[in-house]
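Data availability (excerpt). The following record was deposited with the supplementary files.
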Amino acid sequence: MKCMRVGMATGLLVGLLFSIAPSTPVNAADKRTPAPELGALQGREAQAFHLGVNAVMWGYPAVFFEDLMRGRTPVDAEEKTGNPRAQVNQFGLVRNLRGPEFKQIATPNNDTLYAQAFCDVSREPLVLTVPAVEPDRYYVMQLWDVNGDTFGHVGSRATGREAGHYALVGPGWKGELPAGVKRIDSEYNNFAIWGRIGVNGPDDVENARAIQDKLRLTPLSHFGKSEQQVPPDMEYSAQRVAYEKPADLPEGLEFYDKLAHALKHTPPKPAQDAVVADSLAYIGFRSGNTEYDYKSLTEPEITGLKKAYQFALHVMDVNAQTVGVAVNNWRWNPKSGIMGTDYLFRAAWAKWYTGGNASEEAIYMDGRTDDKGEPFDGSRKYTVRFEKGQTPHVSAFWSLSMYHLSDGSFIENPIKRYSIGDRTPGITTAGDDSLTIYIQHDEPTDPAQKANWLPAPEGGFYMNLRLYGPDDSLKNGTWAPPPVTVAQ
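Predicted structure:
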């Protein structure tokens, strides 16, 4: 049976292996990964390569989750990552809208203030407390697990704008909750809270910060004892994120060692993940996949695993740029935020759209080519024209953002505009109530065009059209975003 499962696991590679040519080298800040020179794979190297690619695609979200959690705990976390320091089970509050200085996570938004926490409820549940917000305020506390699957929302769309308490409960917990605390179950003990608080223009930032300040994340055993935020358990946090790379670990195998560490906290689902999990024993995993015996590997196997890691990252890049439903050369994926067993897509999602939401809360439309299918390039001028009544159909708001192809960060520009949408101050419509957005590198000379200008870089870029609180018109085909056209 094990041999059959290995064969099934390697089947994840069908159609990918030899169809992707090596890429040109990229600089250190570039998140894109070139394909390795594979050579003539054979024997143990070939087997390790196939199994390694599957392991990386399957396990990438869990390893990335642990890296993000660990990276936010040190004293110098904000300096190194651009994120505020936060311990396990503690909110990190991003007090300003994201700009081009933030590069750790690709494709951030410029619409909301973030309140983010990496959580472990293996000891006891956490109680998330949210304040009441204004009638026109959009906010959401998205709950997503280690694999990037969204399992709950607290916010203006899902639960309303009243204050509330929500217990975040891991598997197997059977205690009783205090009166007035609503229960939300997670299949895993580890998950993230990705809070977004809508900002209605520059003058609204302080109001959004005031909402951040009223958020609470409280261990159940401390709930109700104080209205103040309970300090984080520093000792537990340090123990939870502790990881030390073995001194003699061969170069290029760190991912696999980290995967074994991650699986101590997030074990595979017995039925869903059995195919890949069973195959890990062939590439050095031991003790239920929680230890990595790299010393048992032969040199050909080590070489195959090194190539596998780079190749898998490259395939994630290809997937992020190509999958989804195409509408006027915009792409979106109905599975976004709930990927299940689509291991490749969930890995690509983790790498390029970390914490992306499920489509009932928000839809992200990826744009990389104009109406002729040509990649966007800042040497050209583009327009996006929404006819009267044809801007995105949303209950909250919409925005269009632009990013560097290399790392998914915002484009630096002289007017410091990183997104444009229905809340952009000064945006203008034409006499027929249509709305045209001008996308180009050089500043327009026409004042009306400048008001609707989204600055582009000199070279390539991609865009993301975000719909917060979308209706069903995109899903049922009664609305579509207009194509991006080259200006005449």
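Summary of structural features: The radius of gyration is 23 Å.
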